[in-house]
Amino acid sequence: MLKIVAIILMFGLIVFVHEFGHFLFAKLNHVRVNEFAIGMGPAIMKFGKKETTYSVRLLPIGGYCLMAGMDGEETENPEGTFESKSVLARLSIMLAGPLFNVLLAVVLSIATAHFYLIDPPVMTDVNPDGAAAAAGIEKGDEIVAINGDKIYLFREITLFRQIADLTEPIEITYLHDGELYTKTIELTRDQNYMFGITCSPREAKNFGEELYYALIEVRFQIKTAITSVKMLFTGAASVKDLSGPVGIGNMMSDVIDEAEETGGMKNVILSIISFMVLISANLGVMNLLPIPALDGGRILFLLIEAITRKKVPKDKEMIVNFVGFALLMLLMIFVFFNDITKLFK
Q1: Residue 21: its pLDDT value, please?
Q2: What pLDDT does 192 receive?
Q3: Ranges of the chain whose pLDDT falls below 50
Q4: What pLDDT, on a 0 to 100 scale, did the predictor assign at position 8?
Q5: Which of 332, 323, 313, 314 is nearest to 293 (CA)?
Q6: How high is the pLDDT of residue 103?
């Protein structure tokens, strides 16, 4: 029961922050908000203030900020509607949701950087039989780039090993005694493509370092989310690898179990916060995809309007959004049953 409550609260907070971003920027741009809802389905609690109804709904799988005139419905008072505002104002409202998810991830990452350990890619041990040692990397050296891509966390090296073709030569840039060196290494199959390097996490030295690594952590999560999307489009991953609320809840349950085994309640709370960073950053990225019915779909229409200086015909936009929403619902149903199948397996 505690796990279920924790999962619902996690989803609720992340969705609330996302929708609050839309809500706040709508108010700042003097757009009327008809309803601000957390959850979907039938309302279990409603209260109103001025023109806005606030509600909590039964299914903890989303939420919405319903603005006047947003979906082309007729209104007696066109002033204060979403469509009556400038393109820049509407763009700021639509971008605010994903932006607030990223900001939430940064704030939570400061907490994890303070109480958890950070993992800069500084070598605490180098296996003499590994490819890194053959390239001249020694204990205390810092890897700063792989194949030209900047490296800020040791986990980025782990991510690289998961997605790269390790049979190809790899260019590594590292810092040794204050000087940069770039070497090309080859990982051999008989070494199980081993770099032969170890990094032991350490504590942050001060708030400045905590803030720096919080930003780096969110950058890493965004990079991971973008990489996952690329893998879907390139075929390196399939829709069967996607997870919805059930799958995410199951993963969070595993995280809580593991945290309980390795530490006390403090460790459990920090593990939940760390998991929330991942989900919030991913939600921010996914909502920016130019898919109808997502924030990114509306942003795409607004960008077209900004370039052409003409509004996309509302009937055509509504048709595209309806089709996109229907396809999104089909995908959600597929992901739901996929999650259930994985759960029972």
Answers
A1: 96
A2: 57
A3: none
A4: 81
A5: 323
A6: 95
Q: Rounded to an integer, what distance in angstroms lies between the CA atom of residue 110 and that of residue 115?
A: 9
Cβ atoms 57, 41 nearer than 8 A: yes
Burial of 175 (0-12, 13-18, 19+ CB in 10 A): middle
Task: Tell me the Cα Rg of the chain.
Answer: 23
CA dihedral angle for residue 5, residue 276, residue 344, residue 63, rounded to 10 degrees:
70
Burial class (CB in 10 A: 0-12, 13-18, 19+), 193: middle
Q: Give the residue numbers marked as catalytic.
A: 19
pLDDT for 281: 92
Residues 6+ apart with CB under 8 A from 145: 151, 171, 172, 173
Residue at token pair 């469509």: 83
Q: Is 208 helix (H, G, I), strand (E, B) or coil?
A: helix
* pLDDT at 115 (0 to 100): 86
So what's the pLDDT on residue 150? 93
CB-based contact 294:64 (threshold 8 Å): no
Which pLDDT value is given to residue 208?
93
pLDDT at 176: 92
First to last CA, the chain: 22
Rounded alpha-carbon distances, angstroms, from residue 238 to 185, 227, 344: 31, 13, 20
* Alpha helices in 186-264, H assignment, sequence order: 207-234, 245-262
CA dist 44 → 9, 56, 116, 152, 207 (Å): 16, 6, 38, 45, 42
What secondary structure does DSSP assign to 303-338, as a single string?
HHHHHHSSPPPHHHHHHHHHHHHHHHHHHHHHHHHH
Max distance between CA atoms of the chain, in angstroms, equals 76
